[in-house]
TrEMBL record, chain B:
Family indicated by similarity: Belongs to the binding-protein-dependent transport system permease family.
Domain of life: Bacteria
Subcellular location: Cell membrane
Protein name: Sugar ABC transporter permease
Amino acid sequence: MSTHRRMRTRATLLTGIATTAVSIVALTGCGSGGSGSEEAGGDVTIEFAQWWEPELPDGEFRALIDTFEEENPGITVDLVSGPYASTKEQLFAGAASGTMPDVVGLDGAWVSDFAKQGVIADLGPLLEEAGFDDSQLVSQVKVDDSTYMVPVVNFVYPMFTNDDLLAQAGVSAPPETRTEFANAAKSVSDLGGDAAGWVLPLSLEAPNGVQNDVMSWAWASGGTMLKDGQPDLTNDDVTSAVEFIGGMWDDGVIAPGSFTMKEQDKVEEFTNGRVGMMIDSLAHINLIRETNPDLKFSISAVPAADDYTGERGIPYASWGIGVAENSENKDAAAKLVSFLMSEETNSELSTMANAFPGNTESVPAFVEDDELFKKAFEIYQAGYPANEFVGLPVAEELMRKLGAQLQSAFDGQQSLSEALEKAQTEWEAEF
Amino acid sequence: MSLRTVTPPDPETLLGGAPPRKRRQLRRAGESYGFLAPTLILLFVLMIVPIVMVIGYSFQDNVILKSSSEFTGTTNYVTVLTDPAFWKATGNTVFFSTVSVAVHLVLGLTFAMLLNSPLISVTSRAVFRALYVLPWLFTAAVIAVLWRMLLSPNGIVNFLLNTDVEWLADPQLALGTVTFINIWAGYPFFMVSLLAGLQGIPQDLHEAASIDGASQVQRFWNVTIPQLRPIIISLVLLDLIWTSQQFALIWLTTGGGPIDVTEMLSTYTYKLAFANYDFSLAATAAVLILLMSMILAVLYVRHQKARD
């Protein structure tokens, strides 16, 4: 073999080996990494994964975290921000592989699963050690008597009413009871055209309509869907709420397309002036105003059963916070949680997010400037935040199962009581 | 005087023990494996390892989310195979796939023949080809959003038809509607492939058939179809495999609902994994889908081999 040929062969052989090596390194790189608290020269870096930063005005959340870093020299916070769905996937993957970020943004629906896996830490002792008085907290999400999540800010779900449409239908004030609501819905639907009295999203892809638009009727009348932490869907509270909705379904006052309708479709129907009333997150006020500046609408508490006079439960969704069990810097993580829950910071954060604070002492600035928010804050303070899905196992799947049974009942394939009984059996299997 | 060429001995032969031919063969084999290695490693890491892991998960409980998973034998398979929802999803998938593929074929062939017609000028052909191929260029998410808006109770389709049909939300119509959307999204693949096939049929065959007195219809059945048969079989098998695994379109339009009328094997498996967090059952359902797809894949490979 000539020297030239031999060199060429060697070169190709080396190229092959190099390519192989690069592939291995690249693949190894794909699999490595993960969370981590790093420690260098006494300073700690904690990771905080959440979906909040992209939903807040540019740079405001980072500025808040910068304040924390100034107040706590030696702690650096690495914000891991992404959309809600990506954060959820990342956390579930992190939970499985034991690489959860130190501080995690939590949705109440995930808490039970994470707590049972033992991947999130009991916040009680951590906050106590950090010197935080937990009596300031509006609520705490517990599993087996241990606090795993603290709601940082709450988005409540009051009733929105289209003032013009209601006035045209001869309804002068937002309904306060179920009967008034059903009558108002009927009057709006009787206007003809595209108008419908109420809108009920029951999509099985995003089944949170079961929580916000169905179960809210039971909670608004002080009802419950649980008994001793176990499913109790066949009780009078849930039955009367579902029968009330079934009555409106039969009357044809609910906007068409319910079975595949999602939350954003609901808001769109209301924004375009096609429905008289909806139950929706306060977070959408600005979106509705921007999309249809001419729409006149009001906010009220979700109507209660006619004879109910007690405090009304108001559905809510939270930006919750927790600390990973695998975190090596739990004390630093607890300091960050305490900072976000402190009166001043919590007021600031709830103002940024147009949400209600998780600290009882905090008051967001917008309630002073905006009539609708002021009204919503009054409703919030007059009632109590109610969301029994928070902390339940596979909460989203529970909503989906009940949603499918309700669809079947509304479609005439079974009675409402049969639907509730079947959903009860399905729920019991998940507990 | 004769000249003799003296070849100096290979220093490697003098130093090393193995005979030169063997060393050369070894080196050549090493080179070959060196070049194959990146592909082999990728195949191993991205295909073999995940498949083996999923098959392993299907025989255990509490996988991924808990560290205490145990071997459970065929319990997961019994659970999935006795679940009425699994069979409902299988039935829906079979309907969705077979109707989609059949109509894809008919529509694709019709449009391909229209575009192949000598009656159409080159420019018109290019314009129509671009128009007809458009649905194929959209991603499933775009198609889902587009059709959700078009078919909503207040959408343009109901406006044009002067109806108030709940196309996607009515349990009686939903499966047909998502099948229609999938047909719309997928026929261009058939059209483009069959058009290429049609253009490859020698004109002599048609001329000979015409001279023999064959009508247009006879030429279609006796010349065009037999010439296209290998392409048609490949397309049908590939489309069956793809359509039976369609997830995004179903999930984004109906989420498997209303009730369970559009539940497919893909959405059933997804819900087991990401709504129930039961990765063992999800892995079991995935293995069952793999086995079903394998039947189609084997048919496809055998057909390809027969062609070669």
